[in-house]
Amino acid sequence: MKYGVNGQGYYGDFGGAYIPEMLYPNVEELRQQYLTIINDDEFKAEFNQLLKDYVGRPSPLYHAKRYSEKYGANIFLKREDLNHTGSHKINNAIGQILLAKRLGKKRIIAETGAGQHGVATATVCALMGIECVVYMGEVDMERQAPNVSRMKMLGAKVVPATSGSKTLKDATNEALRDWIGNPVDTHYIIGSVVGPYPYPDMVARFQSIISEETKKQLLEHTGNELPQYVMACVGGGSNAMGMFYHFLDDESVKLVAVEAAGKGVDSGHSAATTFLGREGVLHGSRTILMQTDDGQVVEPYSISAGLDYPGIGPQHAHLFKINRAQYVSVTDDEALQAGLLCSQMEGIIPAIESAHAIAYLEKMKFKPNDNVVICLSGRGDKDLDTYIKYFGY
Amino acid sequence: MNRLNQLFNTKKDNLLSIYYTAGYPELNTTLDIAEALERAGVDFLEVGFPYSDPVADGPTIQHSSEKALEAGMTLNLLFEQLADLRKRVTIPILLMGYANPMIQYGVERFCKKAAVVGVDGVIVPDLPMYEYETLYADFFKANGLSNIFLVTPQTSEERIRKIDELSNSFIYLLSSSSITGGNLQVSVNIEDYYKRIKAMQLKNPAIIGFGISDNKSFSKACEYASGAIVGSAFVKLLGTEGYLEKIPGFIEAIRPY
Known about the structure:
The structure holds two protein chains of two kinds.
Chain A: E1 10-11, E2 14-15, H1 24-38, H2 41-55, E3 61-63, H3 65-71, E4 74-79, H4 89-102, E5 107-112, H5 116-128, E6 131-137, H6 138-143, H7 145-153, E7 157-161, H8 168-181, E8 186-188, H9 199-207, H10 209-222, E9 229-233, H11 238-244, E10 254-262, H12 273-276, E11 278-282, E12 285-289, H13 314-321, E13 325-331, H14 332-346, H15 352-359, E14 371-376, H16 384-391
Parallel strand pairs in A: 4-14, 5-6, 5-8, 6-7, 9-10, 9-14, 10-13
Antiparallel strand pairs in A: 1-2, 3-4, 11-12
Helix pairs in contact in A: 2-4, 4-5, 4-9, 5-7, 9-11, 10-11, 14-15
Chain B: H1 3-10, E1 15-21, H2 30-39, E2 44-48, H3 59-71, H4 75-81, H5 85-88, E3 93-96, H6 99-105, H7 107-117, E4 121-123, H8 129-142, E5 146-148, E6 150-151, H9 157-166, E7 171-174, H10 188-199, E8 206-209, H11 215-224, E9 227-230, H12 232-238, H13 243-254
Parallel strand pairs in B: 1-2, 1-9, 2-3, 3-4, 4-5, 6-7, 7-8, 8-9
Helix pairs in contact in B: 2-13, 7-8
């Protein structure tokens, strides 16, 4: 793949494995084994079976007719919100739990922002009967309370991250610290295309099912497997990478990644990483991150807990730098309005994360026959409180 | 040959090193603390430059880093503070911190500046061997700086050999795979690990760190290595009233000989 990872774990200038020695044996074990394991026929069969029977894949590609009329193009929604547990996160969680089993691991840790990855991880741990500990920022535990209860009901232990901004980046720090202290029996299921190599590549591969299905479904809908545009929201960037993956080498397909501008890119309360960030190292990889001149990580802001992250995956940093994908942003207000519009025009309440991708439709200029796919990465149940407070229902 | 090499050539055992975070508990006492530690008999120092996301650190050093950053500590300021270093302190000094602040400062610029103020070595736990070798080693060498690598009980023999080859002062041996501020674990496995390292007859001396907090753990570490590093326990002391006056007593208690 032209835009794939090289042998040292880099995408152009980005990637690598900037980890302390304490994590080296674990990460090296993964690096040596992940491709062999996930390319193994038995693994593939088990993975595909679970995606089909347990997750409910393939997820539909829905031709949103009222949207299409409004925006003057054929708008398709890739319905990852219909997956078991309510988002695309389950795809990666299933892949990694099967991998962890084959590595002989007895304990799973994970970080979560919105709680979707935490719920997905707690779910697959319940499915496999493996101990599960999820780190979640204290602030996020409050704004995504239903997901905290879900994880607990699924048998996971939820540990609040109380350092720093008490959100996703700090939950990730705590999970990494846990892994340092438990180097032999524990596997860390990272939820996004971030972290040290091989995580960004491994998670992208597990999420690539999204674009693999989309191509086939588009062919059925339109007679052409290639659309003009593919759009997705980006925090760390796992749903976007899964949505882009099989379109990367099709240069005619325009890729649009939507970041969270929070209260506005220049407001000081934003998570628009490519606008506000510079190259550096975060959570084990060289990437683009929001930071001070002194190299301290800046605490991001977005109303959406799943996009409230100061970095992006290294492959995204690469696609941004070489202009293979376009990185744009929408504000809290725009996303929430888009969430309401989607509810009332298409009968789908999207996660606020996914609403960011949909919101950008307002700013696009399409030709009448353009085919546009948007990844509807998650459902909005977890965000009802936020929607209700904002709109006063 | 820098001050670190001279130290290791002349003193082979019971070496005591202290880590502290620059800018904690007060912004401008970095050199006062260094001076007090030298006077108390400490053999070499590790001065931490704080980072917002210190994944290898436990709560004590996380807290000191957060406070130092709040007070306004930056690499620029630290190098300003260290301008008088060699007028006041003669023992070897290492800077310790994370890759991102160093990369933002510019690694070559960082190395030059460190050499100018009289720093002898650098410890960056999240700077991997591959990136060090391919991108940065020349800057370290050109400025006479030692780069220190960490080794844990899980590090393979092959990798330890490679680390030994790339090192030119000492190897930082972790008592267990842990973040800072834990307790020294001595079990049969750990004894085997220390013996295994000893039997490898590495060219660099080993210094044990992480989990060394008192005389008992210091003495135990010195049975297996040339010395030990105390970090979190000292940073805790810095958080108390009148910390400068307490330094001699603290060092005496850890190494009463």
